[in-house]
Amino acid sequence: MTRFPSTAFAFALVALALISSTAFAQRDPNRMTHGPMLGQPSSTSVAVWARTSDAGEFTVHYGTRPPENHGGDLSDHVSEPGQTRIEHDNTGVTLLRDLKPDTRYHYRIYVNDRPQGEPGTFRTLPDEAGSKSEHNPDGLFNFRFQIGSCANQNPLHGIGHDSPTYKHLNQDWADKVHFHIMNGDWLYEELREYPAEAWRLTQGIDELPQVVQTMPTVTGVWENYKLYLTRNHALSTWHRNVPSLFTFDDHELVNDIWGASEAGKRHRRTVFRDIGTYAWNDYLGWANPFESKQRLHVGTAKLTAGSDLLVDRQTNFRQLPLNEMLNLHVHWGTDTAGVNDMIYDTDDGEANSYVYDIVEVVDEHTVRLHMPAKADGQVSYSIGQRSYGKFSVSNCDFFLLDTRGDRDMHDVSQRDKPGVSMLGKHQREWLLREMRASDAKFTFLISSVPMMIPHSGAGGFEADDANKEEAWTGFLDEREILIDAWDEMDKQVFVMTGDLHNSFAIRVTDNVWEFCCGPHNSVNHVPELDESNRPATGRFQFGPRECDIRWSSYVLADLPRLERLYPHFCVVQVNNVFNMPIKQGDKRLVAYPHPQVVFQYYDGWTGELAYAESVSLPRE
């Protein structure tokens, strides 16, 4: 008689088989899992990013001929290898150099000498040498870029996993714009509780890299980025074909992160700054120029109750350029530190988790903090980075500002308090110094938060209503200092903003404008409730300065929250020259006496033009 094993025994056999097969299984060959993305646009180079399944390297095959219909590789060049490293979630970047200006290229990622993913294309910027003529002695040229913000993929807080904005961008603008600026909130918090151990198993490694041991919640932010790239194909297509630059706002870190520069502040969101920034460096920040090349520092240290000394035997503080870095944060230490939910805004974090100023370097392994520790213990800490930078195109300067990393704590009961800063002293002084020294006629200041309109509501989402303020209207003293300084400069200044989930064009002074661009995919805010009841158009004043709202997107308060889905994006066109050759089809550029910048707002649902504003140099 045939006997069958008991159910328990059968399960045991299956489990043993699974364990055995797992133990002896080999990982698949290394491959590209996410990407490619393009960044660092210029006339002669571009950066290419990719993520691989294992640490390793990739190359880029590229040239001016598109791939054949059957996928044949017609590339003329192969890049230097891009290295992907486990401590950066297997992400990496390589730079394509010695490109021809104003030229369309085609490219594809290769791993292990095999093609990966879909091919991409991009166009380099024109340059001065190729644009000069007797009628254009300065070699000026025209260019376009797209700018926007706020692309929530959660269907509870926006349009969802699909994105009509990016579909229209791919269809209508990918081959017309030279680059793209995502001005904050590319990412919104999901998967932030993803366990470090689950991440380790997925990577097939024996032990966690030191950076994950020190700040394990970074794995949740990495997973958040991968989810966004995987889930929205139109978004990934856009980044594959258009070079981008990025600022971070709060959601790349954690929603409503305030007071990162405020010595002595204790809040779990505040001290998540560097964990979020580390992941942003890996997935988006690589695309940017930085004024300082020093990235943030992460370590573990010993603190003693009543002592103001922090001791880290693995770090030589004398070798860290602390004068180029931000302050020190001791991390919160809970699994939910980066989750966007107010139920976790409690006081149950690490006892020594505060914002600290570094007073002095005592010796190689010791720094003195501005206040003593509360308890004995080993802590995870980080020292922040300066995440701002600058680049120039033709007669235009672009300043990518950091409005979160060195930000003082605001107080809505005293919005004009002297000395309270959003940028921090170093960034503000750098900005004004660079602007005054530049002969650029147009300056674009990329600020992730609004300048003239308050952001005092959360669009129906939970918030700390008693002190809610994201915009420069919580930093009126610094705002007015900056606007007065800009207004005296011999240039047109455009403050490009985001965060507020509405678009608007505002004339601040004769020389200073604000253009808020977005949202790309997030639910709109209600001006009556979230923006101090500003009008759709017309005069508006909040604080000491009146401004003129020329146009805005505007949602009425009677709409249910998930009916407030009105995405917008902005295309900016810089008109410096026109073409007037002796023979049709040739090139002879003629400079305008008064160049113009045209700001064009488009409806994200239809792709139709909603509004345009043209600003030119003043007539003399």
From TrEMBL:
May I ask which residue range the UniProt record assigns to the signal sequence? 1-25
PhoD-like phosphatase metallophosphatase domain segment(s): 149-293, 370-533
Renumbered to this chain, region (Disordered) spans 64-85
Alphabetical list of SUPFAM superfamilies matching this protein: Metallo-dependent phosphatases, Purple acid phosphatase, N-terminal domain
Q: Is Endoplasmic reticulum set as a keyword in this record?
A: no
* Compositionally biased tracts (Basic and acidic residues): 67-85
Q: Which Gene3D superfamilies match?
A: PhoD-like phosphatase, Purple acid phosphatase-like, N-terminal
Q: Which UniProt keywords apply?
A: Signal
Q: Which GO terms describe its molecular function?
A: acid phosphatase activity; metal ion binding
* Xref: InterPro entries: Metallo-depent_PP-like, PhoD-like_MPP, PhoD-like_sf, Phospholipid_Metab_Enz, Purple_acid_Pase-like_N
Give any Pfam family that matches: PhoD
The protein here is known as Probable secreted alkaline phosphatase
The organism of origin for this protein: Rhodopirellula baltica (strain DSM 10527 / NCIMB 13988 / SH1)
